[in-house]
Design brief:
Layout (H helix, E strand, L loop, with lengths): L5 H7 L5 E4 L2 E3 L9 E5 L7 E5 H4 L8 E4 L8 E3 L3 E3 L1 H7 L4 E5 L5 H16 L4 H15 L7 H4 L2 E5 L13 H11 L1
Parallel strand pairs: 1-5, 5-8
Antiparallel strand pairs: 2-3, 3-4, 6-7, 8-9
């Protein structure tokens, strides 16, 4: 909604273990460092605020996974000996070891179903690649003939590490319990 601004992202992204951005994305194949995600404009503006790939390279993220549910976030230009330069690469430079990004203009509904299934599989302890594969298989098996076409589900891909991500509940440590007991007494 209105809180999906570049400023909010800049202020809070460094705190997240998982970053999920379901926004508009734009690749720039000729100048891949100018690929961007479009956030809601700040203030009363109806314009978009762009977060460019080159800007991400200066961020310090602790996130172990970024899910970029936006068009063309994995589309870019191939450089020999370097690989593909794209928006996803900006997240890798910022320290995010695993990304799910898109290769083309994705369908919002089908992508939402694939990603929902991905998170369900991830919560069951699966590796990232297995979770995405299982989610896509579930989508295909439940879709009609038209929506089972790869255009609707195959555009999302994993880049980087595939180890499972287990988010632990935060429990107070012994030292914090001791401090709490001391403060009560």
């Amino acid at each position: 909604g209105n809180e999906a601004t570049k400023l909010n992202f800049e202020q809070h992204a460094h705190e997240a273990d998982i970053i999920h951005l379901a926004l508009h994305g734009k690749a720039d194949v000729e100048n891949p460092l100018k690929g961007s995600i479009l956030f809601n404009g700040s203030g009363n503006s109806s314009a978009y605020d762009h977060l460019y790939s080159y800007e991400l390279m200066n961020y310090k993220l602790k996130a172990r996974l970024a899910v970029l549910s936006a068009c063309e976030t994995g589309l870019g230009k191939m450089y020999e000996g370097e690989g593909v330069y794209n928006l996803a690469r900006g997240f890798r430079y910022a320290g995010c070891p695993a990304l799910i990004s898109s290769l083309w203009r994705i369908d919002d509904r089908s992508t939402a179903l694939v990603i929902k299934g991905f998170y369900e599989q991830l919560a069951s302890g699966k590796n990232l690649d297995d979770a995405l594969k299982q989610s896509k298989n579930q989508y295909i098996n439940s879709a009609d003939e038209l929506l089972a076409h790869p255009r609707y589900w195959a555009g999302m891909l994993l880049i980087g590490e595939s180890a499972p991500i287990i988010l632990k509940e935060q429990h107070p440590t012994w030292s914090s319990w001791l401090l709490l007991i001391i403060l009560i007494v």
